[in-house]
Specification:
By secondary structure, the chain is mainly β. It has 3 domains: 78 residues, Sandwich (Jelly Rolls); 121 residues, Hotdog Thioesterase (Thiol Ester Dehydrase, Chain A, Roll); 162 residues, Roll (Thiol Ester Dehydrase, Chain A), CATH 3.10.129. It has 5 helices and 20 strands. It has a 12-stranded antiparallel sheet with strand order 9-10-12-13-14-11-17-20-19-18-16-15, covered by helices on one side. The chain has a 4-stranded antiparallel sheet with strand order 1-8-3-6, with no helix packed on it. A 4-stranded antiparallel sheet has the order 2-7-4-5, with no helix packed on it. The protein is elongated. It starts with a strand and ends in a 12-residue tail after the last strand.
């Protein structure tokens, strides 16, 4: 069934009984809270947003007032379980059938503009919450609050504090702007009441326009001809060109498979204690088959973009016995065209500069057709590792 309201009419009043859920089909509505005995608009609901006492993001403590001619589709309470999908991308398959990275990026809606994510035991951690997890989950949270026809095309992320992988992460989405073609969001990741990560993202509806591409994909071996990380690890253990100490360390260290498959284009004998050029090229793709949703594919690419990225800035400075601390400070991405994250993408990166304890890395991603699909940049902290016992809460 559907319902229609004129501008200024109440659709739901604060504390009103009933468990139906309303989907905005045409028009707009304001969610109004009570501040100092005065009703004030808090945010605007637009097409495809939903509200109601039976929704996961309940509005029982707010009024919803039509701000224009409003048409809503009404979902009876018996079917409200449909609003609690197994995946934020509404995947029909259970967790066991999802690609590993899709499970890692899963979020639970807990209130309007609030989502909760966790760090799964099988997710990469690196001693802290992996930066790519922050980026991917934050973009997922923001994507859930925009018109489904708008897809992220740019993001700017700032890593403020080290994330604790033993506790949940709350993602709070701020709706900065909603236009006909573009929407803007800010997402704060919160742990223990403190913002540990923040992201700005812009979304755009698909639009025809001028096109050109000057960037040329470098000539590299096809991914099917290259070794996987597992195969490369086994080869390094028996490579006589590497020191016995290093080979023993590789053999004794626990190997945790990544949810992203990586194949290096230039396998070599460099280690974390030998100098190498400030460049890296590898093919990557998500393991498994992803749900067919461009928003998900861009979240996965954002997740994978932080793997080994800033480390490239430390390559020319490595030396035997020298320990280098590398931490991401900020991360920028531009999506130029649709991507398919479960098919091979070539990630080409180089570090043009390191100065004042900071390294800069620029990157490009190409699909197998040679199309430039993503451009990236990241700045990170680059220092000699501090002595034990001087733990820092902040990342800089």
């Amino acid at each position: 069934m559907n319902t229609e309201s004129d501008s200024g009419e109440y659709v739901i009043r604060r504390g009103e009984s009933g468990d139906d859920v309303y989907f905005v089909w045409e028009g707009e509505a304001e969610v109004c809270g009570l501040a100092e005995e005065e009703i004030r608009p808090e945010f605007l609901l637009k097409r495809y947003d939903y509200f109601g006492n039976g929704a996961p993001t309940s509005e029982k403590q707010a009024d919803v007032i039509a701000s224009s001619k409003l048409t809503c589709l009404v979902l009876p309470s018996d079917h409200c379980a449909l609003l609690r999908p197994k995946s934020i991308w509404n995947a029909n398959a259970g967790k066991e059938a999802c690609a590993p990275v899709e499970s890692i990026l899963h979020l639970d809606p807990i209130e309007v503009n609030l989502f909760q994510g966790i760090t799964l035991p099988e997710a990469p951690r690196f001693g802290k919450v992996f930066g790519g997890q922050f980026i991917g989950q934050a973009v997922a949270a923001a994507s859930k609050t925009v018109d489904c026809l708008k897809i992220v095309h740019h993001l700017q992320a700032y890593f403020l504090l080290v994330g604790d992988y033993d506790i949940p992460i709350i993602y709070e989405v701020h709706r900065l702007r909603d236009g006909k073609s573009f929407s803007s969001r800010r997402v704060d990741a919160i742990q223990k009441g403190t913002i540990v990560f923040t992201l700005l993202a812009s979304f755009q509806k698909e639009e025809l326009g001028f096109e050109h591409q000057d960037a040329v994909m470098p000539l590299v071996p096809a991914p099917d001809t290259l070794l996987s990380l597992e195969e490369l690890r086994e080869k390094r253990i028996i490579d006589p060109r590497l020191s016995r100490t290093y080979r023993n360390k590789v053999a004794m260290s626990e190997f945790t498979p990544w949810p992203i498959e990586i194949r290096f284009c230039d396998p070599n004998t460099f280690t974390n204690q030998t100098k190498s050029p400030a460049k890296l090229r590898y093919w990557f793709r998500a393991k498994g088959i992803l749900s067919d949703d461009q928003a998900l594919h861009r979240c996965v690419v954002a997740y994978a973009s932080d793997l080994l990225f800033i480390e490239v800035s430390s390559n020319p400075h490595r030396d035997r016995g020298l320990k280098i601390s590398v931490l991401s400070l900020n991360h920028t991405m531009w999506f130029h065209m649709p991507v398919k994250a479960d098919d091979w993408l070539l990630f080409v990166m180089e570090s043009p500069s390191a100065h004042s304890a900071r390294g800069l890395v620029a990157g490009r991603m190409f699909n197998r057709k040679g199309e430039l699909v993503v451009s990236l940049a990241q700045e990170g902290l680059l220092r000699k590792a501090r002595t034990p016992g001087r733990a820092l809460r902040a990342k800089y």
